[in-house]
Amino acid sequence: MMNIPTKTFANGFVLPVYGLGTWQMGGRWEADTSNDSTEIQAIKNAIDHGITHIDTAESYGNGHAEELIGQAIEGYDRAKLILASKVSAPNQGYDDLIAACKASLARLKTEYLDLYLLHRYPEPGIDIAHTMKAMDYLVDQGLVRNIGVCNMSVNRFKEAQKHAQHPLVCNQLHYSLACREITQRGVLEYSQHNEVAVVAWGPLQKGMLESAEILQKLAVKYDKTPYQIALNWLLTQPGVVTIPKTTKLEHLEENLGSIGWSLGDEDMTDLTQNFPGQYTASERVPLDYDADVEV
Ligand SMILES: NC(=O)c1ccc[n+]([C@@H]2O[C@H](COP(=O)([O-])OP(=O)(O)OC[C@H]3O[C@@H](n4cnc5c(N)ncnc54)[C@H](OP(=O)(O)O)[C@@H]3O)[C@@H](O)[C@H]2O)c1
After folding, report:
1. Residue-wise pLDDT tens for the chain (295 aa)?
2. Cα 106 to Cα 248: distance, rounded to the nearest angstrom
3. Is any atom of ligand 1 closer than 6 Å to the C-beta of 253?
4. Ligand 1 pocket: which of 204, 231, 255 to mutate (most atoms <8 Å of CB)?
5. Which atom of ligand 1 sits closest to the CA of residue 120?
6. CA angle, 121 as apex, 117 and 125 as ends, to 5°?
7. Which of 67, 87, 277, 278 is most exposed by smallest CB count within 10 Å?
């Protein structure tokens, strides 16, 4: 079992540099039970390899991803796990949010979440002040240890924080060698300066990075695989951790080989500047600046 290094953020919140994503386990937007045993085993394999941070959401498989995690973690020491889940935008009214959190806890078969995140900015008609009040309530009641957000621009983040008593310790964002929206828009720099964890989702671009020549070249130089180089580029940056999803043991073991070493400064700069096909607005969940506010 690997001892995965950690980074520490606001509120003393600690995250390992590598966690497990679960989008598309248990289905996409609807529950799909056809791969349950493989996916439960994949989560157990991750824990057996030293992974403690498991990321999910109420929307993944319409709750089924959480149910799979609940089954997978039976028999493990809950105190050693860092369970993170997310509340969907339509469920972020005060009462709905509290109910959504309790439903997630029931599916995960746990008494508390280590991290609870807004999956998106609240849907129109829902006042963010009420949303954040509900997030505070969950912390005060001990149902949630830490709170955070996803996919928020700097101004959106400040707005959410303004309405919360407890610190927002995390902004989960699309960040990879290819997707550079958060550097372009100042979110990375802001998060680093304010001890907000940047949890990079989509780090492998769904497994589509490896053909880039620059990765192939560095893979040879460091005796690593292209994906190990791509993940190490993220982990070497201050304040950044990541949560790749995989159900395959060989991919898990490969990805964990991104840990425990660092690319040299020149190679970091080379990748940052010269990785081909960089783009500056996530094709999956772009940051919301059309509606951005000055706080
Ligand atoms: N907050 C948000 O809005 C948001 C949005 C998207 C995602 N997320 C979270 O972030 C997690 C990660 O993002 P993601 O799942 O979209 O993208 P990802 O982790 O970049 O890519 C996952 C894909 O890459 C494949 N893969 C993993 N390791 C590989 C390897 N070594 N070689 C080749 N292919 C490999 C996986 O397939 P196999 O399973 O076959 O290995 C899967 O198809 C999600 O699971 C979810 O928990 C959050």
Report:
1. 889 999 999 999 999 999 999 999 999 999 999 999 999 999 999 999 999 999 999 999 999 999 999 999 999 999 999 999 999 999 999 999 999 999 999 999 999 999 999 999 999 999 999 999 999 999 999 999 999 999 999 999 999 999 999 999 999 999 999 999 999 999 999 999 999 999 999 999 887 888 899 999 999 999 999 999 999 999 999 999 999 999 999 999 999 999 999 999 999 999 999 999 999 999 999 998 877 777 7
2. 27
3. no
4. 204
5. 3
6. 125
7. 277
